[in-house]
Amino acid sequence: MLLYIQEVAKEVLDENTQEKTLSIFQLIKDGGVGGQIIIALLFVLLGVALYIYFERFFAIKAAAQVDKDFMNQIRDFVLNGQLEAAKALCSNTDSPTSRLIGKGISRIGKPLEDINTAIENAGKLEIYKLEKNVSVVATISGAAPMIGFLGTVIGMIVAIHEIANSGGQIDIKMLSDGLYTAMTTTVAGLIVGIVAYIAYNHLVVRTDKVVYQMEAKSVEFLDLLNEPI
């Protein structure tokens, strides 16, 4: 008798274990139409965030690559009065730093303050180009968890609605749809938000390094103009 009870208990335990083992696809499927729509929206936002991240990452990486001899060549050209050669070098070098220096060279002969202002204005445009669409990633990092929480609220409303309409007899199967929606959308929203937040901060750090490089080269160029000939 005791052995029979143990076998029955083992079978029930195995059945419960199998029922609790669900794939991610099954969880999304059991979450109902509302949960599926919200998770689909979160996947779209994740795709947008990853696209912008990789596009900006490679653009910023390319912007940070400047020939180490670039400023030495500019120095030699300027000191020897070969301004056209200096402009040509800046034009042939595709980087924010070279465009700033080129803008400064085009203003040589004017007061140093005017040259500095021209470089600062050009720098603002270059920073704007570097930060293109980065704010979208920041928006996704904040909006995704809130969209997930919206799914949680919708799931709880569905669950409460089923309880209210059960007539005193709660159907666990029907109730589980609302609970699946509540849980899966929250997890999906948090995952998308975390990924987008990390991507945004990494892009900000990379951009700051390029901006610092631009400022350092600009100061070096202005110091060059102040040197006695």
SSE arrangement, N to C? HHHHHHHHH
Tally of DSSP β-strands: 0
Contiguous helical run count:
9
**Total discrete domains:** 2
**Major β-sheet profile:** none
Terminal-residue CA separation: 107 Å
Helix/sheet category: mainly alpha
Proportion of residues in helical segments: over 70%
The share of residues in extended strands comes to under 5%
Q: Write down the Rg.
A: 30 Å
Based on CA inertia axes, which overall geometry fits? rod-shaped
Give the uncertain stretches in residue-range form.
Answer: 1-6, 12-20
Mean pLDDT: 79
Keyphrases for this structure?
Outer membrane transport energization protein ExbB; 0% strand; 9 helices; membrane; 85% helix; mainly alpha; MotA_ExbB_proton_chnl; transmembrane; 229 residues
